[in-house]
Write a structure and sequence with these properties.
The protein is an alpha/beta fold and 379 residues long. The protein contains 19 helices and 5 strands. The protein has 2 domains: 152 residues, 3-Layer(aba) Sandwich (Phosphatidylinositol Transfer Protein Sec14p), CATH 3.40.525.10; 186 residues, Rho GTPase activation protein (Phosphatidylinositol 3-kinase, Chain A), CATH 1.10.555.10. The relative contact order is 0.12.
């Protein structure tokens, strides 16, 4: 991909055909493909589109990842040829398919069935098991954080029309108390850092401290740390234990990837990202555009002036740990660049959930700067 690394994809990227949506509920990177954003065939070079797809996937295929394909909006005007689709499947070899853990196909039509019948002789049983069909967006809620996925308005409207067909013609009875369920004071996941601090007195949430301490002791030399997914049932059980305020004891070796998943899950489920919506809107692209020699100084200034106190404390704690991970990169293969790819989308995202290739690259670049300059930034 050396040639693709130098190629300008801005003409493709501006359509937002592909977007990055952080992690799914099993801590796997999510890449969203929106068919409705494909321009007419006369306005796009499909060979270049394929190279763009490869370029995007190459940043994530070393990690476990999922793809969400939103099929609605594909039509005779913008639909690539069947021969092109077959070519794409063949060229995307085992490197791309090995760590793809789920392919969610939403709003299928007869065309999808045609493509499947054409590809079926070449599709392995293992790959076929990864395909999940979803008639409605709500079918994805078990697997994905829908609010954090870039879903085109055209797809949302189509989904609403489908959902209307399934809505009951009566209002089911609802218990008054069922609408007022409060979270326990010990809640860790899905609540603000300020709430955790006010209820528990913890500057570092126990879910973060416990996972980091365990990984610091047992996981620093594990190859592919933070790249692998974990058993979702086990992860849910540990999540519930943390939320109940219980003391969690991980099982050495067996739970290393579970602990890594839980740390990313905690960050992803914060109501507002650790690096805040404001920093995304005001500073990410601006800092990314600065000359390299000015970036570190500006990152220091922004983090110290713009981050809330609790965010700053947790970020410092996390980054000091990630430095320890990079110090063992010769064993775990997780240098600053790889960690930035893994943690970037879990540390900052926009309220609109749109993360194009250019913005994702900027996020990863800033996170890499933070990891590589911890003493200067937090000293």
């Amino acid at each position: 991909m050396a040639m693709a690394d130098r190629e300008d994809f801005s003409d493709i990227d501006r359509h937002h055909i592909l977007s990055i949506a952080g992690d799914d509920k099993n801590a796997r990177k999510v890449i969203v493909v929106s068919a409705c954003r494909l321009p007419p065939k006369t306005e796009i070079n499909h060979d270049k589109l394929f190279r763009y797809m490869q370029y995007t996937l190459d940043q994530y295929v070393e990690n476990d990842y999922s793809i969400v394909y939103l099929h609605h909006g594909l039509n005779s005007e913008n639909r690539p040829s069947i021969s092109w689709l077959v070519h794409v499947y063949h060229v995307l070899d085992r490197k791309y398919k090995k760590n793809l853990k789920a392919l969610f196909i939403v709003h299928t039509t007869g065309f999808v069935k045609v493509i499947w019948s054409v590809l079926k002789p070449f599709i392995s049983t293992n790959f076929a098991k990864k395909v999940v069909y979803a008639n409605r967006l709500s079918d994805l809620e078990e697997h994905l954080y829908l609010a954090q996925i870039d879903i085109p308005e055209l797809v949302k409207k189509h989904d609403q029309e489908i959902s209307a067909r399934y809505e009951p013609t009566y209002s089911p009875a609802v218990s008054g108390t069922a609408l007022d369920i409060s979270l326990p004071e010990t809640q860790q996941f899905g609540v603000t850092l300020e709430r955790i601090k006010s209820h528990t007195g913890e500057d570092i949430p126990s879910a973060v401290q416990c996972t980091v301490e365990f990984l610091r002791e047992s996981g620093l030399e594990v190859e592919g740390l933070f790249r692998r997914s974990a058993n979702i049932t086990v992860a849910k059980a540990y999540t519930a234990s943390f939320n109940r305020g219980e003391t969690v004891q991980f099982v050495q070796e067996k739970d290393i990837h579970v602990a890594a998943v839980l740390l990313k899950k905690f960050l992803r489920e914060l109501p507002e990202p650790l690096l805040t919506f404001q920093l995304y809107d005001d500073d990410i692209m601006r800092i990314h555009a600065l000359p390299d020699e000015e970036k570190v100084e500006e990152v220091v200034r922004v983090l110290k002036s713009a981050l809330p106190r609790q965010n700053y404390i947790v970020l410092k704690y996390l980054m000091e740990f990630l430095v320890q991970v990079t110090n063992n990169a010769h064993l775990n293969k997780m240098n600053a660049s790889n960690l930035a790819i893994v943690f970037g989308p879990n540390l900052i995202w926009t309220e609109s959930a749109v993360a194009s290739l250019s913005s994702t690259g900027a996020i990863n670049s800033i996170v890499k700067i933070i990891i590589e300059n911890v003493p200067s930034i937090f000293g």
